[in-house]
UniProtKB/TrEMBL annotation:
Top-level taxon in the UniProt lineage: Bacteria
Bias kind Low complexity: ranges: 1-22
ABC transmembrane type-1 domain: residues covered: 97-289
SUPFAM superfamilies named in the record: MetI-like (SSF161098)
Biological source species: Paenibacillus athensensis
Name of the protein in question: Sugar ABC transporter permease
GO terms under biological process: transmembrane transport
Transmembrane parts of this sequence: 37-58, 101-120, 132-150, 170-188, 209-234, 268-289
Localization (cell): Cell membrane
Primary subcellular site in the record, as a coarse category: membrane
Region annotation (Disordered) ranges: 1-27
Membrane topology qualifier: Multi-pass membrane protein
Alphabetically ordered keywords of this record: Cell membrane, Membrane, Transmembrane, Transmembrane helix, Transport
């Protein structure tokens, strides 16, 4: 008996009127599933709710003060780009941007450097001590910032780091390293130990093993940690307000806060324009790293 070719049988079945392959039939059935439509509808509504404040801010930043007070939902009659020029000068945007970028650079460098080493070492070192230290790091993430902010402010003043952008960056490292260790710890578990053993056989020391072999493999979770902490540092208002005392070292949000008048005389055109300007760098950073973010979360945090 002549054997039947599966590909020819499939093509013959598809040529018969009314016949359809099981794969295409199940695909159409899944596409018509009410559950799938419901999920897409919920996600669409969530996206609209999230993007609506940004849309309103962008819309009204392009209006005059009179148009904004008359109807905040109406489209602008003319694009008032002068609002952005005014906000750029009133907030001293370049200086504030440099301060924010400086604090973010110190924070991200310290968090990624310390957490990657600690997460790798704790994950690769079995034992009760390693487990206990990891437990302490995880438990510290459950402590709310508001319960320690007064004590933290007094310690910063005692150590003479209050009012310094460098000191603010160091405080961010201490506050953010615990969650990053948790994420690195989970991601390292997905990397086979055979790579470590092969590198040791080739003569790699422990630091060289981490720097040359392990850290490049941690790129997805590193990108995830970088964008999460950048969003936190860039958008944080309370901690810089407590720590920075000189307006020359103010971050973007603190400089924008200076536009609010003491007696309600707020320059809303400049406020909204400065907020839109403050969004742009972090949005660009996210777009550059977005392909690594979901991969890092899925393979690191969930398996941790």
């Amino acid at each position: 008996m002549k054997p039947v070719n599966p590909s020819s049988a499939a093509s013959t079945a598809s040529a018969v009127p009314g016949a359809a392959s099981p794969r295409s039939h199940s695909g159409r059935r899944a596409a018509r599933s009410p559950g799938a439509w419901l999920v897409h509808l919920v996600l669409l509504l969530a996206a609209l709710v999230t993007l609506f404040p940004i849309y309103m801010g962008l819309l009204n930043s392009l209006k005059t003060e009179g148009e904004m007070m008359n109807n905040i939902l109406a489209l602008p009659r003319h694009l008032e780009l002068a609002n952005y020029v005014g906000a750029f000068h009133k907030t001293n945007f370049m200086r504030s941007l440099g301060n924010t970028a400086y604090v973010a650079a110190i924070s991200l460098t310290g968090i990624i450097g310390c957490a990657s080493l600690a997460g790798y070492k704790l994950s690769r070192t079995p034992g009760k001590l390693s487990g206990f230290l990891f437990f302490l790091f995880v438990m510290s993430t459950l402590i709310p910032f508001h319960s320690v902010m007064i004590t933290l402010t007094k310690i910063a003043k005692t150590l003479a780091v209050q009012g310094s952008a460098t000191g603010l960056g160091l405080i961010y490292i201490g506050l953010g390293v615990a969650l990053a260790i948790f994420m690195y710890h989970g991601f390292v578990k997905t990397i086979p130990r055979d790579l470590d053993e092969a590198a040791v056989i080739d003569g790699c020391g422990e630091l060289r093993l981490f720097a040359v072999v392990m850290f490049p493999l941690l790129l997805p979770i590193t990108a995830t940690i970088a964008i999460l902490n950048l969003l936190w540092v860039w958008n944080d208002f309370l901690l810089p307000l407590l720590m920075l005392t000189d307006y020359k070292s103010y971050t973007l949000l603190l400089s924008t806060n200076m536009l609010f008048g003491q007696y309600g005389n707020n320059d809303w055109s400049a406020i909204l324009s400065s907020l839109i300007l403050a969004m742009l760098p972090v949005i660009l950073f996210y777009l550059l790293l977005q392909r690594y973010i979901m991969k890092g979360i899925a393979e690191g945090a969930i398996k941790g």
